[in-house]
Design brief:
By secondary structure, the protein is α/β, with parallel strands linked by helices. It is 38% helix and 22% strand. It has 15 helices and 19 strands. The chain has helices spanning 6-19, 23-39, 47-60, 130-146, 170-176, 178-181, 234-247, 256-267, 271-279, 286-296, 298-304, 340-351, 377-390, 405-410, 442-460; strands at 65-68, 76-81, 90-95, 116-117, 120-122, 154-159, 185-188, 192-196, 199-209, 211-220, 224-225, 307-315, 321-322, 325-334, 356-360, 394-399, 414-417, 421-423, 439-441. Helix 8 runs antiparallel to helix 9 (271-279), helix 10 (286-296) crosses helix 11 (298-304) and helix 13 (377-390) runs antiparallel to helix 15. The structure holds zinc ion (ZN). Zinc ion is lined by residues 95, 128-129, 162, 189. Zinc ion binds at residues 95, 128-129, 162, 189.
């Protein structure tokens, strides 16, 4: 008998399994679940309501699940589809909480309407992160229904508190329930596909993220009568320090992910943009490119170094009193390998003013794991899934924000963010994540489900 290459056998096996799935029906079913999940108000709490819904759906499919919580209102759910155990588990996650809403700002559709209109689904959390929650849940259901043979267990987790209170969610799961969710690889939010001019342009797999760090600038001076201005005024010193730190161009440093990201972006960009990405590495031209990014492309600029944004300023209490103290609260987003004590020293030397101290701390911090590999089998499997579902180039991404993957990566898992497709212009128009009219393309929901299924089966199915 002629030998068929292993890769082909694998592809055929998956294809025949996939044929068992009636995707038109599954998409309709998934859309109903996504809308229902959006209709549950879980803004910064009440994740138990989401868990109740998910548990009921899984119960109906005969999939056992456990609910674990530090606070019953902020419940997490864990379900497991068993494999043959020859490989370590795959964890798929979606967070069940959303950020808060200002209902008055949701002019066209209520924040929890889940309305489908003009090809978009509207509602708080439809992208962040009920998109991943519904896709992970549907994938779990499809694994059960098809009975596809798995080399590894697939663990589905609905986690609470991602938006600023991860102690109820991933923090608690990792500290108190790690054996139940322990995995070699995990898939979660972030990354995704950028749609440009109505077409998918490129996909991004999130392999690492910047690390939120807190610090304050504290300026002190001599208090006195406002009629006699003093050069020692704490507000004057603070203002000068804030400007210096905000205009400072901290040392640039690339890692495997960001280097590959800019290289690949150069390959698919217009000539002028492509040249800029290449000039980043040219010592003679890099500074000018960074200044261009600082003004025009803040995301790119942030990806190049540890960044500092002064976001709260406080000082003074009466118009005729010179205050003796003024403070600025900074949002620092560190590169994964940043040595913070040395960075704070560098900041102090940039400010160069004995009246102003850099005071580290003041915010809850996530662990600082190394980036996940961009050469692992799992990464390549996800890359192929994106290429197949969207037919686009795939880039590794270092996200400037933070996610629950930080805690899971810190336990040694390789985590990849594989979000849905988003219109490039949607964010600037006010339809993006955390905005007052968060929405997702219906087509993006369908494609996301396919992507999830293909990535999960490529990583976990027996072949
Ligand atoms: Zn999120």
């Amino acid at each position: 008998m002629r030998r068929v290459p292993v890769v082909l056998v694998f592809t055929f096996a998956l294809a025949s399994r996939a044929q068992q799935i009636d995707w038109t029906k599954v998409q309709e079913e998934g859309l109903r679940h996504l809308q229902a999940l959006v209709q549950i108000d879980s803004s910064n709490a009440n994740e138990a309501r989401v868990v109740e819904y998910v548990k009921k759906v899984l119960d109906g499919e005969g999939i056992p699940s456990t609910v674990v919580s530090k606070d019953p209102a902020r419940a997490n759910l864990i379900a497991r589809i068993k494999g043959n155990g020859s490989k370590k588990p795959l964890l798929i996650m979606g967070h069940s909480d959303t950020v808060k809403v200002d209902p008055a700002k949701w002019i066209n559709f209520g924040p929890f309407s889940g309305t489908l209109s003009g090809g978009y689904i509207y509602g708080r959390g439809v992208i962040d992160d009920k998109s991943d929650l519904f896709a992970a849940m549907m994938t779990t259901i499809l694994l059960k229904r098809t009975g596809i043979k798995l080399d590894r267990d697939v663990i589905f987790v609905s986690e609470a508190g991602e938006e600023g209170s991860s102690g109820f969610g991933i923090g608690y799961l990792v500290s108190d329930h790690w054996p139940e969710i322990e995995a070699e690889t995990c898939l979660a939010e972030a990354g995704g596909v950028t749609r440009r001019g109505g077409k998918p342009a490129f996909a991004m797999i999130e392999t690492t993220e910047k690390v939120p760090r807190g610090a304050r600038l504290v300026a002190t001076g001599v208090s006195g009568h406002g009629s006699r201005p003093m050069r020692t005024n704490a507000i004057v010193h603070l203002s000068s320090a804030v400007e210096k730190i905000a205009m400072w161009d901290p040392p640039m440093r690339l890692n495997d992910t960001t280097r590959t990201y800019f290289e690949k972006l150069a390959q698919i960009s217009a000539p002028e943009d492509a040249q800029r990405f290449r000039d980043l590495l040219d010592p003679a031209k890099s500074a000018a490119v960074r200044e261009y990014f600082a003004v025009n492309e803040p995301t790119f600029y942030s990806m190049l170094h540890t960044s500092i944004s002064p976001n709260i300023i406080q000082g003074g209490y009466q118009s005729n009193v010179i205050p003796s103290e003024a403070t600025a609260t900074l949002d620092i987003r560190a590169l994964p390998d940043e040595e913070m004590p040395a960075f704070f020293e560098l900041m102090t030397s940039v400010i160069n003013d004995p009246a102003v101290q850099v005071v580290p701390g003041g915010r809850a911090e996530r662990p600082v794991p190394p980036p996940s590999s961009i050469t692992s089998d799992a990464y390549h499997a996800i890359e192929q899934a994106f290429e197949h579902v969207y037919n686009v180039p795939v880039l590794p991404l270092m996200q400037t924000g933070a996610t629950d993957m930080a805690q899971v990566r810190a336990k040694g898992a390789q985590c990849y963010g594989i979000g849905p497709m988003v219109d490039e212009e949607d964010g600037p128009k006010g339809f993006g994540v955390h905005s007052d009219q968060e929405r997702m393309l219906e087509e993006a929901a369908f494609k996301h489900l396919r992507l999830f299924w293909e990535a999960v089966t490529a990583i976990a199915a027996s072949h």
